[in-house]
């Protein structure tokens, strides 16, 4: 499935909820599904810059695709990390290099989360693109 289709699926899920509070709660629930990240990966090399909370993101290449794992120390951000991982994991390097940075607006998250959290999402996408460029 393409990155664009994954964004579309998550947008449809978010659009199901009528108000911002319901969307916020849904994002928090997504964070509870996030796999834990071993402490050995919570090092400065894996930190995402631009986030107000701490976010760690790691990458693994397998069969020409990149897979990501990550976590945060803030519950709402864990949900955002979950969404970003769902969108970008299992993508080719070329797909990741060409990925749109405007996901915050495509998902209309700018209506739900603060500008600082929006910057954090952009920081995560930048980190993913860095991993793709190094792969």
Structure description:
- The protein is an alpha+beta fold.
- It has one domain: Sufe protein. Chain: A.
- Helices cover 52% and strands 13% of the residues.
- It contains six helices and three strands.
- The protein has helices at 3-15, 20-33, 75-88, 93-97, 103-106, 115-134; strands at residues 55-62, 65-72, 91-92.
- Strands 1-2-3 form a three-stranded antiparallel sheet.
- Helix 1 packs across helix 3 and helix 3 runs parallel beside helix 6 (115-134).
- The longest helix is centred in the last third of the chain and has 20 residues, at 115-134.
- The radius of gyration is 14 Å and the shape is globular.
- It starts with a helix and ends with a helix.
- The model has no long low-confidence stretch (mean pLDDT 92).
In a nutshell, what does this entry contain?
The chain is of the alpha+beta class and 135 residues long. The protein is built from six helices and three strands.
